[in-house]
Amino acid sequence: MPIPLIPIISALAAGGSLVPSAAGGLIVTGASGYIAGTFLSTAAISGLLATASVTLGAGALYLSGTAASIVGGAGILGTSVGASGITGALMSAGVISSTPIWVPLAASGTAVACGYGGYKVFKLKKKLNDTLEGEEAQFTEKEAKIIESIIKRVAKKDSPDGEF
Hints:
Elements: H1 5-13, E1 17-20, E2 26-30, E3 33-34, H2 42-71, H3 85-93, H4 102-130, H5 141-158
Antiparallel strand pairs: 1-2, 2-3
Helix pairs in contact: 2-4, 2-5
């Protein structure tokens, strides 16, 4: 976790929320207004997204591959021949005759949600890359919430006890 994020993470943990600043960039606001020392510039956000994409993205790819291999799939034409993972074991034992319909539906829903989230982050990165050096980008409330959730995930990942 980079040092400039420490006051921002502390303010978010105390109940603040990240909001767009009138001067560009983002700032944490609490019950009494803006919290001093919590301004997040466009350059800092760009660096945060680059770091978060590498660390969180690699973890998501690892977990998605792991989850697919654990659940497994039905074999040839839905039979137990060539079935793998938990699905194959349950099919071989005669517990299930094929993969329940909720499994592909849940996987499809997760893929759509991840795809939409990836698209929003892609658009945010494009906005950051299109911002001229020395200028601050104007962010929306939705973009502020996306960045806030990324900061919370990075803070949770970096904390020794796994809590934010």
